[in-house]
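Why do we care about 3D structure at all? Because function follows from shape, and shape follows, mostly, from sequence. That is the central idea of this module. The next example makes it concrete: a single protein chain, its amino acid sequence, and then its structure expressed as tokens.
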Amino acid sequence: MAVKGSSNTPLVIKADHSVRNQVLMGITVVLVISLLVAVFWLGHETTDKASYEKDLEQAALQMRAEDAEKKYIDLNNKVSIYEQDSIVNRQANELVRIENKRLREKITELEEAVAFYRGVMSPSKNVRGLRIARLNLNGTKDGRRFHYKFILTQVAENSRYVEGKVKFKVIGMQDGKVKSLSHQELISNQENKNIKFRFRYFQDIKGEISLPDKFIPERVVVIAESTGKGAVRLEESFNWLIEEV
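And the structure:
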């Protein structure tokens, strides 16, 4: 039976893929966006991690630099302290050396003084009578002025007072010639030009003299003359030696 209005043309049924394509497209876009976001965050995280690690390295280097600088300052301070201690020690050693030298000289001086006074108080039989014991010369800031001191002694049993006068002269060179200067020419104080002595055991004779320019002293001659019974005249020559004060 034939159907009216029908046709013998075959019926073709076509599927509508537009919705599916749109869905797929949407999914693709979402995946691409997600991938881009993931890549972005991964890169950002990697960058942050690298920056963080770099910051850590810089902080570590800064700490090491500060620690090295602190150690340098500490070491430099220790070196300064050691150098200062070394200077102080050298100065202290020098002061000790000078003081030891001064003490040794003082001990020698005292030993000589003890021997001298023992000789005065307990004379030997070979050394008796009036003596000119020693001469001391000391310089001054002037350079041409000098302090002198010589000691007269009397060595005798049951010594009595002895008195008399003393004079001395300085012999040296001036202008290539030998010259002798009496104490009257060298002493400026008129009262000290007449030197007298009176003692029982010993007496210091001291004063100050001034040497003329270009005069080079070499020795000092001291003359002591006692008066009265048993008067004697003594003359002693001493080299010109300036003692350190």
